[in-house]
Design goal:
The protein has helices at residues 2-5, 7-22, 42-62, 96-103, 120-125, 141-146; strands at residues 27-35, 69-76, 82-89, 107-113, 135-137. By secondary structure, the protein is α+β, with helices and mostly antiparallel strands. The chain has one domain. Strands 4-1-3-2-5 form a five-stranded antiparallel β-sheet. A hairpin with a 5-residue loop joins strand 2 and strand 3 (82-89). The radius of gyration is 16 Å and the shape is globular.
Length: 157
């Protein structure tokens, strides 16, 4: 039972539970946002990402939708610059490729339809235990976590 109490085993279990917890909301998109520049400061990167998100919020408002919700993590590439992975929900039938194109003013983007069985929730969930990970989420995500029940096995050690 060393896997249950070793630091590596506990981290693996935490990542798995976090990934399972992230499967609770009804996500629409899994996105990756990469910068063209060799270096972009975290503050500048946030500014670009939130500008992109604000455009998405405006499109949702025009469509009569509530503000979208998200979960976002930062990953540093081998070349030293950061990029983002995010899960986004509440976007209805808004065209993904339009928002891919919007981001590509800054670099490269993938805006994919979220498919629950492909594991994107576990992929972004692994950043819970990364030393240089930065996790952000929308204020309205909690509303979408309580609409659906989480059936994971959370136990206290």
């Amino acid at each position: 039972m060393a896997w249950r109490t070793s630091p590596q085993g506990l981290m693996r279990r935490a990542r798995n539970e976090f990934g399972a917890w992230l499967s609770t909301p009804q996500w629409d998109w899994y996105t990756t946002h990469t910068f063209r520049a060799e270096y972009v400061s975290p503050k500048e990167a946030d500014r670009h990402w939130y500008s992109w998100l604000n455009s998405l919020c405006l499109a949702c408002k025009v469509q009569g939708l509530d503000r979208p919700f998200y979960f976002r993590v930062v990953e540093y590439q081998d070349r030293g610059t950061l990029h983002f992975h995010s899960l986004i929900g509440g976007v209805g039938n808004i065209r993904r490729l339009l928002f891919k194109d919007f981001w590509e003013l800054n670099g490269f983007a993938r805006v994919e339809k979220y498919e629950p069985n492909k594991g994107a929730n576990f992929y972004v969930g692994k950043y819970l235990t990364k030393a240089d990970g930065d996790i952000r989420f929308s204020h309205n995500l909690k509303d979408h976590l309580t609409k659906h029940s989480y059936s994971g096995n959370l136990e206290v050690l």
